[in-house]
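Work through this protein:
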Amino acid sequence: MSEWYMEYEIEVNRPGLLGEISSLLGLLRVNIITINGVDEGRRGMLLSSEDDEAIERFELIASTMEMINVRKLRHPKLRDILAVRHGRYIQRDADDKKTFRFVRDELGILVDFMAEIFKQEGHKLIGIRGMPRVGKTESVVAASVSANRKWIFLSSTMIRQTVRSKLAGDEFSGNNVFILDGIVTRKATDERHMQLVREIMRMPSIKVVEHPDIFVRHSEYTMDDFDYIIEIRRDNDEEITYDKLEQNDRMSGRSGMDFGFNI
């Protein structure tokens, strides 16, 4: 049983059109898993079939139908699955295909997106850009829960500043999601912390780096090492500026309110 994604544009919208398409798929023994609108005037379907030739026959028949225009018919990608699930495509950078953009009101879709990535096996390196208190860490934790993965902070400011220099027991499991804050790791003076980061980076596991641009600026890693880059903004016009982030970090350090600790 193989899965397919079909997206079609409605050329002539009339009553009973969806029923006719569904009946045709049924005659070809193609099952409809999910259906939803994915854009204005377009519908997306997740399909399953034991015979790929049935999909080819449907594509041939659909090409003769004046009411619809099949735009996509392929094995589903992650964006296709989420588009049908949420009723629209997530925003992707036109130039950098591994960069995906979200606003704070879309955190539910973001969590779903990351959870699907976290469910995959093997190495995945994910960078998250965003200004303070936009929901970066909370989204990663929620996605870990959704994917039934344990999360481990290597460095963080979620509750108080944390810098880990060692892990113990099942914390080294490749099934965990490892989270680090690029700014905190950059500030770390304990070489054992960087040794731990390098060790985790070599593991076939999920790694999430907040503020990846600052992280690569002060390490041997580059942006090419990342599989996904996620940007979170309060609104579409918000600018993510690292100069402001670093300035806030310096002011926090001078204020004496740093309750950080090493483990």
Notes: The two ends are 49 Å apart (CA to CA). The longest strand covers residues 2-10.
